[in-house]
C-alpha cells in the first residue's frame, strides 16, 4: 500500500536493534483516515472470505482492527489481553507469546465467550517481525475450534522471516508494507 509506505518514509524512524518507530501515526498517535484506507485494502484482499470475527492483541492492533471491521460488515473485534485482571471472568483461552519490541514473554488471554468453534477469524496486527504474536493468536483460534481465514498486517519486517514462514505454512498473509531493509545510520528504509 503506497500510502502506508510513504507515511513510513516520511514519519518513521529507524532505531538500532531492527526497531522501526512509527508512533506518529500507527501505534501511539493514530491516523484514523490511514487506518480506514488500510481496512479497505484488507477488505479487498480478503473479499472472498466470510469473516465472522477479527482478532488482535492489545494495544496497538485495536485501532486498526476496529477500522478494518467496518469494511467487513462491522464484525466484532476481539482483542487478546496481555494480563489477567478482575474483569476477565469465566473460562478463557490462554497462551504465551514473546514480544520482539518489548523483549519479554507475556500471556495472551481471550474469554471463551468471544471466540468460539466455527468462528472464521481474520487476525490483524500492526507489526509482523518473527511471528510470535501471530503464533499466539493462531494457538488461541485452534484451542477454540475457530479457523484462521487470513492475517492482515500493517508493517511486516520481511528481513526477519516471520511472514515468509507463515505463508509457507499456507496462511494468507496480507502485509500492507513489507520492509526489506532499514538502516539506523542513514534512516533509509527499503520496501519489497
From TrEMBL:
Q: Which domain of life is it from?
A: Bacteria
The catalysed reaction is:
XMP + diphosphate = xanthine + 5-phospho-alpha-D-ribose 1-diphosphate
Primary site of residence: cytoplasm
Q: Write out the residues that bind xanthine.
A: 20, 27, 157
Ranges of residues in domain Phosphoribosyltransferase: 44-155
Q: Where in the cell is it found?
A: Cytoplasm
Name a biological process GO annotation: xanthine metabolic process
Q: What's the protein here called?
A: Xanthine phosphoribosyltransferase
InterPro entries listed in its UniProt record: PRTase-like, PRTase_dom, Pur/Pyrimidine_PRTase, Xanthine_PRibTrfase
Pfam families referenced in this protein's UniProt entry, alphabetically: Pribosyltran (PF00156)
Molecular-function annotations in GO? xanthine phosphoribosyltransferase activity
Q: Which Gene3D superfamilies does the record associate with it?
A: 3.40.50.2020
- Its gene is xpt
Question: Which residues take part in binding 5-phospho-alpha-D-ribose 1-diphosphate?
Answer: 129-133
In short, the EC number is 2.4.2.22
Which pathway is recorded for this entry?
Purine metabolism; XMP biosynthesis via salvage pathway; XMP from xanthine: step 1/1
Family (UniProt): Belongs to the purine/pyrimidine phosphoribosyltransferase family. Xpt subfamily.
Gene Ontology cellular component annotations, sorted alphabetically: cytoplasm
What function is annotated for this protein? Converts the preformed base xanthine, a product of nucleic acid breakdown, to xanthosine 5'-monophosphate (XMP), so it can be reused for RNA or DNA synthesis.
Q: Which UniProt keywords apply?
A: Cytoplasm, Glycosyltransferase, Purine salvage, Transferase
* Subunit-structure text: Homodimer.
Amino acid at each position: 500500500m503506497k500510502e502506508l509506505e510513504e507515511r513510513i518514509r516520511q514519519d518513521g524512524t529507524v532505531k538500532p536493534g531492527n526497531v522501526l518507530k512509527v508512533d506518529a501515526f500507527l501505534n501511539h498517535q493514530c491516523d484514523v483516515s490511514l487506518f480506514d484506507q488500510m481496512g479497505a485494502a484488507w477488505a479487498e484482499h480478503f473479499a472472498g472470505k466470510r469473516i465472522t470475527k477479527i482478532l488482535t492483541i492489545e494495544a496497538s492492533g485495536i485501532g486498526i482492527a476496529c477500522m478494518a471491521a467496518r469494511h467487513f460488515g462491522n464484525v466484532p473485534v476481539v482483542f487478546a489481553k496481555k494480563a489477567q485482571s478482575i474483569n476477565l471472568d469465566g473460562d478463557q483461552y490462554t497462551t504465551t507469546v514473546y514480544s520482539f519490541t518489548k523483549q519479554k514473554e507475556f500471556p495472551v488471554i481471550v474469554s471463551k465467550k468471544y471466540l468460539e468453534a466455527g468462528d472464521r477469524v481474520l487476525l490483524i496486527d500492526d507489526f509482523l517481525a518473527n511471528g510470535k504474536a501471530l503464533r499466539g493468536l493462531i494457538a488461541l483460534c485452534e484451542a477454540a475450534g475457530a479457523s484462521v481465514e487470513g492475517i492482515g498486517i500493517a508493517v511486516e519486517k520481511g528481513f526477519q522471516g516471520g511472514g515468509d514462514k507463515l505463508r509457507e505454512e499456507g496462511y494468507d498473509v496480507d502485509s500492507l508494507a513489507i520492509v526489506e531493509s532499514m538502516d539506523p545510520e542513514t534512516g533509509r528504509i527499503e520496501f519489497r
